[in-house]
Specification:
- Strands 1, 2, 3, 4, 6 and 7 form a six-stranded antiparallel beta sheet that branches. This protein has a three-stranded mixed beta sheet with strand order 5-10-9, with helices on one face.
- Helices cover 41% and strands 19% of the residues.
- The protein is globular.
- By secondary structure, it is α+β, with helices and mostly antiparallel strands.
């Protein structure tokens, strides 16, 4: 416990455990194990024994997440979004088969949020099989289609959700960065010409492309829907890291599922199978026949094109640079499917 940031406040732990165990807890010991978290938040598994008022000791296991205030471009309140969602009625939009972790206690102390949450198990990351990923896409479609059709008041009363224009502004910010914009147009660029041309053509047609994207249904998006944030167990999904959640266009999360550090060897297969699965799930709740032309490839390029160029240009590891190029190549192969 050398780092003061890693010292658990006993009163907060007791509040969380009392809610978790549905009993009055008077004291508890704890051990911390650092878990893989995001680039900003700190995540620990907390284990130990909780003591009840009658002296009974019960073992427990939960997750403690802390996150200090930070600035995300175009989304200034995202640092506290998970806190805002967990202390609201937001969880009522979920179902047993598609949900976030249970939060036992949420606290905001100055410019830091603290969340005490359910320890989750399941298959995640690159351990997800292609069949699981296809099912995830269909479940996502069901979730977004149901909310699109039902329009629950709980959801529309949430004050801290990211804005629908976030994805477009993210792309425009990258495009305005000369370091990348000029790089893919220069003779010094090490990215193969056909991949550069794919990105340049997107820039040229961006206004028309976004006009098409903006005709798509606006849905609740997780906006960080990549394999490390998805846990799959017995056909059910549990999603972590809701700090970027908000309004977006139909298909944004599927684009992430397909292209955001996914299994490169299966990317094209995911593109072929996940999009129909997603639309199949969505159409169970909403008629989307007027939106038969999806824009998933365009969304992938808007969300990940320049990001992959950035990673390639500034990466020192030859292996990682090759991975970024390979990903761009797979995106290229999707364009005529």
């Amino acid at each position: 416990m050398n780092n003061d940031d890693n010292i658990v406040k006993q009163e907060l732990l007791i509040k969380a455990l009392s809610n978790m165990l549905n009993q009055t807890i008077i004291r508890a010991d704890y051990n911390l194990k650092a878990l893989q978290g995001g680039t900003i938040g700190r995540v620990h598994q907390v284990t130990g024994f909780a003591e009840t008022a009658d002296g009974e000791k019960q073992p427990y296991k939960m997750v403690w997440k802390t996150q200090k205030k930070f600035e995300r471009y175009g989304d200034p309140d995202s640092w506290r979004r998970e806190y805002d969602l967990y202390v609201s009625d937001f969880k009522q939009v979920f179902s047993d088969s598609f949900r976030s972790p249970e939060c036992y206690h949420a606290e905001i102390i100055g410019d830091e949020i603290q969340l005490w949450m359910e320890q989750i198990d399941g298959v995640s990351g690159l351990n997800l099989t292609p069949a699981m990923v296809e099912h995830i896409a269909e479940q996502l479609g069901r979730f977004q289609g149901r909310l699109y059709a039902e329009r629950p008041r709980i959801l529309h009363n949430q004050p801290n959700l990211s804005k629908v224009e976030y994805m477009k502004n993210y792309y425009l910010r990258y495009r305005s960065w000369p370091v990348l914009y000029d790089y893919i147009r220069s003779d010094e660029c090490e990215i193969p010409k056909h991949l550069c041309d794919m990105l340049i053509n997107f820039d040229t047609d961006a206004d028309e492309i976004f006009n098409r994207i903006e005709q798509l249904p606006i849905v609740l998006c997780h906006r960080d829907f990549w394999v490390e944030n998805i846990f799959y167990s017995d056909g059910k999904l549990l999603l972590i890291d809701w700090d970027t959640a908000g309004w977006g266009y139909m298909g944004e999360d599927v684009a992430s599922l397909i292209a955001d550090e996914a299994d490169i060897s299966h990317m094209v297969d995911y593109y072929q199978k996940c999009i129909p699965a997603y639309y199949r799930g969505f159409s169970q709740y909403a008629d989307i026949s007027s939106n038969s032309k999806h824009c998933i490839h365009e969304l992938i390029l808007a969300m990940f094109g320049y990001r992959l160029v950035e990673w390639f240009k500034f990466e020192e590891s030859p292996k990682d640079r090759s991975t970024h190029l390979h990903t761009l190549q797979k995106i290229y192969e999707m364009k005529d499917i």
